[in-house]
Amino acid sequence: MEQGQWRQARRLVREARHVVALTGAGISAESGVPTFRDAGGLWKSYRPEELATPEALARDPRTVLEWYAWRRSALADCRPNEGHRALARFFLRRGEAGLVTQNVDGLHTRAALEEAGEDPAEAALPLELHGAVGRDRCESCAARWPAEPLGETLPRCSACGGLRRPDVVLFGEMLDPDLLDRARRLAERADLCLVVGTSAVVYPAAALPLATREAGGLIVEVNVRRTALTEVAAAALRGEAGTVLPALLD
Ligand code: NAD
Ligand code: ZN
Questions:
Q1: Is 108 annotated in the active site?
Q2: Which pLDDT score, from 0 to 100, does residue 39 have?
Q3: What's the CA gap between 25 and 43, in Å, rounded?
């Protein structure tokens, strides 16, 4: 009952005291963000699960850094869509953080800054569980920088000489425990978890909506397809995030 789902979802959004939103690759689909699978040309012969690993970075840093440079250049033409914007406005209005993403494309951050205008964007800035390709970090110390084009020699940390690498979680790497902890606390406190554009089958994506539920809250799902969470969602809205989110949240 599509109409019943919408009525229920709207009521839950209206009545929620604390909201957490978890987003995945689906929210960036309408921005044209290429997935791993869309990798073109030269990169077609590489498997991301083998390329984006700590072992590959240790063995052949140049190739891994070049792959991320390619991903960054592919992102340069992408802009936040109406889904990112509606979420940014929603959290700015509420003045309370609650946005958690698995995406590394930085589009939530851009939407937050664009929607905030003069205001500080704090409440709309996402917790980026898997990092951001637009940032580098030092492999050995805590230093972070905006990503820069790759030069002739491997980029090094000016403080400690460690390798400068993308500030993303590679396959097989641990998530930042503090970040994960903050996300879990947001999920547990929330009476509503809005799950957008994620298949939500892998940890921790799957764990966060369930944490909300175990603490007595409810799930509203936005996705073009059914997922493993549809069954346990209090309402499931079928459609593209860029259309559904403004209609639900504005
Ligand atoms: P996923 O590919 O497993 O799932 C995407 C989900 O989005 C699917 O359920 C699909 O039905 C749905 N979807 C597709 N288009 C949609 C739309 N327009 N509106 C609403 N829903 C839509 O992605 P995931 O769950 O994020 O997990 C994949 C992993 O890959 C993550 O860990 C993520 O970090 C990484 N990844 C990130 C990006 C990015 O930064 N944009 C892109 C690809 C992969
Ligand atoms: Zn360093």
A1: no
A2: 61
A3: 20
